[in-house]
Design brief:
The chain is an alpha+beta fold and 204 residues long. Helices cover 21% and strands 26% of the residues.
Length: 204
């Protein structure tokens, strides 16, 4: 049975909500969680009903019942979320439904590409040599976005995009140094995340 990525997310949200609250969410609560309109969620729920994934009693709130096992989407990569650091308590078995889905963090529907960091010029921004920057390809940015910028000199840099009084300011991530002003900066993309793989050693 095929479900869209958004339908998978809706089913997983309903499952988690039922486990935490012992009742089903309303359409309004689902819409608020995904920051969309109630009408949009209504359409998704109707499609899921037709596919046999859930059922609900009309004109009855909190009547959604899941009819299929709900897990991660096929091909998804997840890890269990055990606890937070720093913490005095050791990691425990993960509670139901609490995991990190990398497909949700970096949605496959968006145009993503990676950039490997070379050198240690951004170490003060906690970005080290060998890190992989996950970039969403986009020529536009919003205030506060971390962006990849091409300068007229041909240099490429990682900057924080801000617009003040009609002027674009490009700040370093850690706030040090003077901001650069750019009339029309050439933005290659917006940083969605940073991935780092730690090397294992033979130390005992």
């Amino acid at each position: 049975m095929y479900f869209t990525e958004r339908q998978h997310h809706i089913l997983r949200f309903i499952k988690r909500y039922r486990e935490e609250h012992r009742v089903s969410p309303t359409l309004a609560e689902i819409a608020e969680h995904f920051a969309v309109t109630k009408a949009t969620i209504y359409e998704h729920v109707e499609q899921l009903e037709r596919k046999g994934a859930l059922k609900r009693a009309k004109f009855h709130a909190r009547s959604i019942e899941l009819l299929i096992p709900v897990g991660a989407p096929e091909g998804a990569r997840t890890v269990s979320l055990l606890s937070s650091l720093p913490s005095d308590s050791p990691p425990a078995e993960p509670p139901g439904g609490r995991d990190v889905n990398f497909g949700e963090m970096f949605p496959l529907g968006k145009k993503l590409f990676g950039l490997r960091v070379q050198g240690d010029s951004m170490i003060s921004d906690h970005i080290a040599r060998g890190d992989l920057l996950i970039i969403e390809k986009n020529k536009e940015a919003r205030d506060g976005d971390t962006v990849i910028v091409n300068f007229a000199s041909g240099d490429v840099a990682l900057k924080v995009y801000r617009r003040e009084n009609g002027r674009v300011q490009l700040h370093s991530l850690n706030g040090s140094g003077q901001a650069k002003f750019a009339t029309e900066p050439k933005i290659r993309g917006v940083v969605a995340g940073v991935l780092r793989r730690f090397k294992r050693t033979n130390a005992k």
